[in-house]
Amino acid sequence: MLLVLPQTDWRQLLRQARRSPSVFAIILFLLTALSVLWSGGVAQEKLNGVGAVAKLAVIPVLILHVSRRGHLAHEALRVFLVSTTALMVLSWVSLMISIPKTALLSMLAPGVPVKDWISQTNFFLIAAFAAAHLACDACTRNHHIRVAGYAGLVAAFIANLMFIHPSRTGLLIIPVLVLLFMVQRIGVRRGTLIGLATSILACLLLWQTSERIRERVESAITEVHRYSANGEATSAGYRLEWYRQTSGLVAHSPIIGYGAGGVRAAMEGMVKAGTLDEKFVTSNPHNQALLTAMQTGLIGVGLLMAMWLSHTIALAGSSLAARIGLAIVIQNIAGGFFNSHLADFTQGWMYVIGVGVTIAAARSQASITANG
Length: 372
Hints:
Elements: H1 10-17, H2 20-34, H3 43-54, H4 59-68, H5 71-96, H6 117-140, H7 144-163, H8 168-186, H9 188-209, H10 211-230, H11 235-252, H12 263-273, H13 288-314, H14 320-335, H15 345-370
Helix pairs in contact: 1-4, 2-3, 2-13, 4-15, 5-6, 5-7, 5-15, 6-7, 6-8, 6-14, 8-9, 8-14, 10-11, 11-13, 13-14, 14-15
């Protein structure tokens, strides 16, 4: 930003900020910042609440900057594929041999050398999706070596997801992206039918061939049962309780919510009233719509939905950038049922950078096509 903003034409930036792919994101950020005024959270919680969505204000800057430098989008795609491929290779290597922990390599789980398996799964899914489209494009041009290379990348990413450490949210997103891919390549009607059939077959294949996937799915069912039967503290059980409690809190303040960083304060109020066990207090209910509703009410949820819709419309084209960008949006929406990825650092910036770059690239491509 320090490098980009001094080169930015502020009048063009303001015009870009008023357009639909940017305006709802900016208003949501401004509303969250304003909601500090009625938040009951402590200063640090308020700052965290505002900071979590501040990144959305970068979207118009990215769109404007990349639109003026069309080559950046292609460079970004190359760098993304190279970096995710390098991470995938390191993931396999770290699983096979013992690599000591360093400042860069956290090794939180076998085969997850950096960050966490949720981030790794989501990055690998988008990389596999992009490589699949590149393979199809190469096939139409009869570039057989490239087809084999990109197909090999797809297989390697999927194999990593199957056998190393898939996230449960990522497993639910796989059939969604398969369906989206089929619709993008062969049309809505045929793509939906073939995509559904392919998704079912893919799920059956993954279930039969990957013990790791079976463990992840069965553990979720077991966790829910243990929580429901014995009140045992489990990850899935906690999520169910957070959904139930925050839904009730939203019903008590549906319009403007509890302000930025007010989630924990609102739940602590329930603890004091004796209606909630202290162990369930959290600042993140792990659901994007519920987190937004808790902070800025149904007004904020409406802005969130409008932002997603505007990005979906902006990326409805047939260029490679538009197809990849739409996958990022759909992944974020689907993942939002079980996580609040926009508020997370890595996932949130993945969305902001991915959407900003691909919208700019899709517009540039559309302009080139329109001008012949």
